[in-house]
């Protein structure tokens, strides 16, 4: 407590908690749902939210975090676009006594005292689930299973971890080979563009693993343009389970989706309140998620919120 009594909030003393949130961008349906979840949860929790969109650029996120430090917010939350390069700005927050909660994506900082908690999914497990589905699905395949992989943003935690989880799982079947793997930046436009080129270079490909729904949806257009039927000539497995992805799955254009929940807002606000109250919070908070087949997507779709 300060002399003016309970100074919790961006230099004002109305007793409200102020959170600075540095978002990655608006690259995907997942991200849009995540932003909405954070904004709505802040409102419901009575937390004053300062929100910034970094347009997938680390330098913009660093600028936003520095400005939150300068504004003396009570807590900073952010979803680091890539894993590396955060030590300096996290140290600045720590020196200013502002707790940081990592949301959705991880940092590779060795000094884990630079943040209070990390809330989000297990991306290695997601990649593994996608790979396990393919191993299972390939049991009846007669010829080789040639996979094109569309990776998420290079250097991001979900791209690094989904790649390694998937690679690990498909080792179980030597028929399965990754014939090409390239960055599609988690966007529809890039997914389409990269897939066009990869399909030309690899006509033997018969499976697409897209590390999010949006890249899979963009790639679907390229697959159709190449005269192939998505979900049939080219099997498609993705991650996220946003509405457009689930629709493609229910329609038989995708074959399997591993869910990654963007609805992190309510838990994030809970953690923020506790940490501002000086309570100990868990260092890692994992999101609960599932997987969907085409049949399961048909059932789940009508009540899907995002
Ligand atoms: O899968 C993708 C988004 O970090 C888990 O980022 C998130 C990923 C998500 O752009 O759609």
TrEMBL record:
One Pfam match: Peripla_BP_4
Keyword field contains Nucleotide-binding: no
SUPFAM superfamilies: Periplasmic binding protein-like I
Residue stretches making up the Periplasmic binding protein domain: 25-280
Keyword Methyltransferase on entry: no
Primary location class: other
Record InterPro entries: Peripla_BP_I (IPR028082), SBP_2_dom (IPR025997)
Molecular function terms from GO: carbohydrate binding
Top-level taxon of origin: Bacteria
GO CC aspect terms: cell envelope
Keywords: Signal
Locations listed in the record: Cell envelope
Family per similarity comment: Belongs to the bacterial solute-binding protein 2 family.
Listed PANTHER family: D-ALLOSE-BINDING PERIPLASMIC PROTEIN-RELATED (PTHR46847), GALACTOFURANOSE-BINDING PROTEIN YTFQ (PTHR46847:SF3)
Protein name: ABC transporter substrate-binding protein
